[in-house]
Amino acid sequence: MPVCLMIGLLADAQTIKTVTDVQQVWLGYFNQTRLTDKFGFWVDLQLRTKEDFFDNLSVSLNRFGLTYYLTDNTKITAGYAYVVAYPEDNRKVSIPEHRPWQQVQWNTKYGKKRMMQWIRLDERYRRRLVNDSTLADTYGFNYRLRYNLFYDIPLSKKGIVPKALSFVINDEVHINFGRQIVLNTFDQNRFYLGFKYQISEQSNIQLGYMNVFQQLAAGNRYRSINTARLSYFQNLDLRRKKG
């Protein structure tokens, strides 16, 4: 076989894309609390299963932040998240990640419909591995930029009010960058369809289907995660009422 033909076949083999399908459940609690006209805080706690919906755990996440309100509809938040990736495949240890983050979020109303958008920057410090059963003392690092679009369509003529149902559409794209990012600048896209039940003025519960399409570090390997997502949201306003 000519050398040039052999090189071409090897190059093609390296560029073949493989996609692995898994099924997961994502559970989440999300809280945005306003304390004063200018300040508030953010908390979200998440737990994700590994595969086949209920087979072990894949990720736990605890995120906290301090929020500054530019206006009633625009705010900036900076904080810290601690993430644990539990053992998978041949890896026998959990990998911790320290993640400072910053975000600008804004809300828009279109009649009775509502749209929320944010742009978030993550700084990801992840422990390296010595081998499949031992953590290294050093950390890998990269930035990740995220854009999130959430659209809330009420199914009641009264709009988004307590005891009413809404249809929600959500898409979030993640982009990696930094020195250590070589083959997976595109990290993942999360597309979600679901229903929201407005429990009260300040809380709601959401249930739906999300597809996470993720490019892995090898560059030619992808994962399609079919996800059942259940989330509880609180948006509290603890400011003293005037008058």
Structure, explained:
This protein is mainly β and 243 residues long. It has one domain: Beta Barrel (Porin), CATH 2.40.160.40. The chain is 5% helix and 70% strand. The protein has one helix and eleven strands, in the order αβββββββββββ. The protein has one helix spanning 3-15; strands at 18-34, 39-51, 55-69, 74-85, 95-110, 113-131, 134-154, 165-177, 186-200, 203-215, 221-237. The chain has an eleven-stranded mixed beta barrel. A hairpin with a 3-residue loop joins strand 2 and strand 3 (55-69). The radius of gyration is 21 Å and the shape is globular. The termini are far apart. 13% of the residues are buried. Residues 3-14 have low confidence and may be disordered.
Short description:
The protein has 243 residues and is mainly beta. It contains 1 helix and 11 strands.
CATH superfamily placement? monomeric porin ompg
User: What value does the average pLDDT take?
Assistant: 92
Shape: globular
Low-confidence stretches: 3-14
CATH topology descriptor: Porin
SSE pattern, N- to C-terminal: HEEEEEEEEEEE
Task: Determine the fraction of residues in helical runs and give it as a percent range.
Answer: under 10%
Distance between the termini: 88 Å
How would you summarize the topology of this molecule?
Layout: H1 3-15, E1 18-34, E2 39-51, E3 55-69, E4 74-85, E5 95-110, E6 113-131, E7 134-154, E8 165-177, E9 186-200, E10 203-215, E11 221-237
Parallel strand pairs: 1-11
Antiparallel strand pairs: 1-2, 2-3, 3-4, 4-5, 5-6, 6-7, 7-8, 8-9, 9-10, 10-11
Task: Offer a few descriptive terms.
243 residues; mainly beta; Porin; eleven-stranded mixed β-barrel; 1 helix; 11 strands; disordered N terminus
